[in-house]
Amino acid sequence: MKFAKTSIAALLAATALAGTASAEPKVLMLHQWATGSDAASIAKLGEMFEAAGGTWEQTAIAGHTSNTLAKLRADVLGGNAPAAVQLKGPEIAEWNETGMTANLDELAAAEGWDDLVAPELLPVMKPAGNWVAAPMNIHRINWIWGSTPAMEAAGVAELPKTWAEFNAACDMAIEAGKICLAHMSADWSDATTFETVVYGQDIDLYRKAFMEADLDALRSPEMIAAFDQMRLMVDNYMDDAIAGRDYDTASNMMANGEALFFIMGDWQIGVLTAAGFEYGTDYTCAQSPTDWAEPGFILNADSVVFFEQSDPDYVEGQKLLASTILSPEFQTVFNISKGSIPARLDVDLSSGFNPCQEIAQADLAASIEAGTLVRSMAHNMTVLQKYRGAMMEIITEFVNSDMSSEEAANLMADEVEAQM
Amino acid sequence: MAEAMSDSAHWDAEASRARRNHFISRVVIYGLLLIFAAIYLLPLAVVVMNSFRSLPEIAEHGLIAFPRSFEFDAWFDAWNSFCLNGACEGMRGNFYNSLWMTIPATIISTMLGALNGYILSKWRFKGSEILFTCMLLGVFMPGQVALMPWATILGSVGLSNSTAGLVLVHVIQGISFTTLFCRNYFVAIPDDLIKAARIDGAGFWRIFYKIILPLSPPILIVTVIWQFTGIWNEFLFGVVFTSGREQPITAALFALAGNQTNVREYDVMSAGVLIAALPPLLIYFFGGKYFVRGLTAGAIK
Amino acid sequence: MSIADHPSEAGPGWRERFSRLLPFLVLAPSLAASFLYVFVFTGWTLYISLSDSSLLPSYGWVGLENYADLWASRRWNVAYRNLFLFSAFYVLGSIAIGLALAVLIDQRIRGEAAWRTIFLYPLAVSFIVTGTVWGWLYNPTAGIEFLVRGLGWENFEFALTTSRDYAIYAIVITGIWQSSGFAMALFLAGLRSVDQDLIKAAQIDGASPFRIYRRVVLPGIAPIFIAVAVIMLQFAIKTFDLVIALTNGGPGTSTTFPAIYVYDLMFQRGQIAQGAAAAIMMLVALAVVLVPYTLWLVWRRRMEADNG
Fold first, then answer.
1. Band of the pLDDT at A21, cuts 50, 70, 90?
2. Is C234's Cβ below 8 Å from some Cβ in B?
3. Percent of chain C with pLDDT over 70
4. What is the pLDDT of residue A7?
5. C126, C147, C224 ranked by CB distance to B250: nearest
6. C interface mutation test: which of B57, B60, B292 has the most C CBs within 10 A?
7. Looking at the partner chain, which of A63, A385, A396 has a beta carbon nearest the beta carbon of C252?
8. C74 vs A415: CB contact, 8 Å cut-off?
9. Rounded CA gap, A336 and A356, in Å?
10. Does B191 reach chain C within 8 Å, measured CB to CB?
11. Binning pLDDT at 50, 70 and 90, where does residue A234 land?
């Protein structure tokens, strides 16, 4: 084995001396989309990469992100960081600080990424000022989905715009004998619902508490009020079997008309389309309730980070992969099936995309204008994992117990503080 | 005469009472065993049945029901066409990867264990007891503690991301167990046997081949069973120290079972679970007798 | 007395010395590897737990700060408490059921091989599989609860994994299912090794089978109880795969365990130093169990040696 490795190394060195023009682009991508439609989307990336002349290899690790990150850490410690890794949010910055990430500025300048990519994403992809990651899409978290037949049966005319309207609609739903809000309790889904509540009630609270981890904001009366609304929803508007329910059961509850509403990010579009439901007849979408009357957007983006490589084949492969990811073709194909919208601002959504996706794109632009664009805490785009973990634990504990709002707010602040 | 009659009547009554008690106790014993057996077999039965049922039928009648349909599709899917890691080739690649990893690791760690056990039981030198106890501690190490150090070490010897590296990890971690079992077993081999061989001029290796090895099949089988099962079923290291096509079957299993956001294909999951569990199950099935025999000799001391 | 004390013949000096050293030389690689594995890794973990590592290991000294942070964390306290609860029930349960099964099988029943296989096979199965399949059984909408309700008992409840208070018992039950076969195997062989003469003497004295077990057999296998308890305990302390597959620490964080928290801290949260501190606390728990046991073993062996 060692002899083989030495000879290959010698061969590579010789090839490198002969000039990088003869390098064969190849890449190894580490990600956690092992099965189902996610894996199919990544498969498309692989196809496009190979069509452009590269050799595609991937390692997909199922389950919790911890497993993927464990492998990443093991690889980095072992001296061979993978060429491309699916990472997002503050983790990009953290890994960038280790100095092991690759620098894509040359390619970015050549292809004009600074102008093509949504401005909110730039600080995430360029944590220290230079490009280290390529964004694959933009997810919108703050959606509320409504079942058309269920809403009709309950006499609810349209999706609620404020939390007061939401509560009123739910009361009507309960009288009509329906479950108001479908939900499955897991740390990420509880946090998703909760952050839309906080965002909808008070944007400044959201910014301070969930983007800056400000302790006073976490403890504030406004946060307690948000927990109050959450408590109302959990106790009265959701059904009793939320713990342990899986995602598609919850989704089907809304899609089949058992429940009126479902609060979930835009990948729900992919799920609904795959299950054969149609926009309009079966479901409609709208921005989740906000008490302030403007377009709002909670942003989440999947991205691929590149680690510095010594093998020129991998270096070429990284550039090719980054270029492929940001190409309009990939952005279109990938996002149609995922339900998100392209990270490139100039892609036309009118063919093949779902009406909700077109609404998302329009709302994104409007939200940028109105200054209401934020990134998602529940989906790991804002604070460091150690704070996010602490916050999500308390939120999910709150949902699954009869903790008081005051206790929850204080606990959340305490736990975050303990990590500081 | 009357006394003899009453004696024999008395004897008959006692005998029949004893027979009745015996019968009752037999009923109780077998009854209890049956109840326990039912509980133990229930999960296996559920999985086997579900691997043959169609998905709509499972959705309608729940996970625990007699099959109303009987299809082999799930088995083909799991083995051949389940989409995992970008390729739709099922679990069979992962199955072979696990074989390539588990068999060498089991054989090497067992052989080393036998050798070490032989040395520590028959060639005791100063401090060998202490060294043995230190080696023993390896049995109790939790896996997460070792992950990052192993990653660093494998990287520095150039074995990261390879099956060979994984074999190395499992061998070293397995030596503690195998040495423990073998040593405790070999202690029972009479020293006189060895002394006689030495007087005849046999050296270290010849004693091992001619005396120890022929006597060791019971404990070797136990060790092989234990190691094979442990290494085959191990998830964390298997997934972290391999990439892409080389991932072991536990990675495929986790992908099948841990699906959070897509429709759960219970039938394919069941077939996959059975395929993954088959080798260790077969080994326990055929080696169970030796397992009990050897375990007691090895683990109790 | 070992063979090494009786050299076979007087031969050339270096060859003699070499053959004396040979066993040690053969053992050396395994020894070195084990030492590395146990002591170097533990030492490294200990050092990291006192350092400021976050995403990747770094070596700045921070003393016991990570331990303080760890014990101040609510989730760690829940995990440690769960560990005690689980260990107690799991060990006692496995011993009780393992002993019961062994006693039943020991009654000269027919088809012993079949019964033994039935109770042993769970050991062959990976924890992930066990957790997944038992998760199906516990599922309220498709598992046991669904089945029993379908049979007519409308109010039957068995949704352990979705209840904050009872999920831990789901893990206990599944854990016992998986491991009691191992306890059974150990007890069975122990029962078989009890001196038959003692039993016959007691039978002649007219003792009932129950009393024979209580007075003669069980005391005779007392060391096995302890061995089983120790082995089960160290399984319990390392519990990881089973919980991940069954409840993933939920609902909420009610079934989180130290091993899971170590994993999350080290990998999900990029707080390697605190993760190392938690790992050291796990090793401390293991030591608390193993050190007294080892000392007791040594003491016992010395007693046996003295008694001839």
1. low
2. yes
3. 93
4. 47
5. C126
6. B292
7. A396
8. yes
9. 11
10. yes
11. very high
Cβ proximity of B241 and B165 under 8 Å: yes
Q: Is A92 helix (H, G, I), strand (E, B) or coil?
A: helix
A197 near A226, Cβ under 8 Å? Answer: yes
CB pairs under 8 A between A and B: 109
Q: Does C44 touch chain B (CB under 8 A)?
A: yes
How does pLDDT run across B234-274, given as a tens digit for each residue? 888 888 888 878 888 888 888 777 654 455 678 888 888 88
Structure tokens at C196: 């038959």
**Residues facing C61 on adjacent strands:** C51
Q: Which two tokens stand for residue C210?
A: 């129950």
Res A412: pLDDT:
92
How large is the average pLDDT for residues C262-283?
A: 86
Distance CA(B222)–CA(B230), nearest Å, equals 12
Chains near A (3 or more Cβ pairs under 8 Å):
B, C
8 Å CB contact of C267 and A67: yes
Residue B176: other Cβ atoms inside 10 A: 26
Judged by CB atoms closer than 8 Å, whether chains meet at B158 and A2 is answered as yes
CB within 8 Å: C270 and A69: yes
Residue with tokens 């899971």: C260
Residue showing tokens 């015996």: B22
Omega before A289 within 30 of 0, i.e. cis: no
Of C4, C118, C147, which has the smallest distance from its Cβ to B40's Cβ? C118
* ipTM, interface predicted TM-score of the complex: 0.81
Sign for the CA dihedral angle at B243, B244, B247, B252 comes to: positive
Place of tokens 């003469």: C197
User: Which residues have a Cβ under 8 Å from the Cβ of B63 and sit 6 or more positions away?
Assistant: B46, B50, B266, C136, C137, C139, C142, C143, C146
Minimal CA separation from C165 to chain B, in Å: 24
Pairing of strands A297-300, A179-182: unpaired
pLDDT in tens, B20-45: 878 888 888 888 889 999 989 988 88
In this structure, of A166-170, B44-48, B157-161, the range with the lowest mean pLDDT score is B157-161
Please name every residue paired with A182 in a beta bridge, in sequence order, or none if there are none. Answer: A262
What's the pLDDT score for residue C289? Answer: 80
H runs (alpha helix) in chain C: 13-35, 41-49, 65-72, 74-105, 112-120, 127-138, 144-150, 167-192, 196-204, 209-212, 218-220, 222-237, 241-246, 258-263, 272-306
Q: Which amino acid is at A186?
A: A
Closest alpha carbon to B70 in B95, B50, B45: B50
Between chains, do A59 and B243 touch, taking CB under 8 Å as contact?
yes
* Parallel/antiparallel/unpaired status of strands A297-300 and A303-306: unpaired
> Does the pLDDT value for residue B11 go beyond 80?
no
Q: Closest Cα of chain C to B86: distance in Å?
A: 23
Query: Which residue pairs, CB below 8 angstroms and at least 24 apart, start in A10-13?
Result: A12/A311, A12/A312, A12/A313
Q: Is C231 on the interface with B (CB under 8 A)?
A: yes
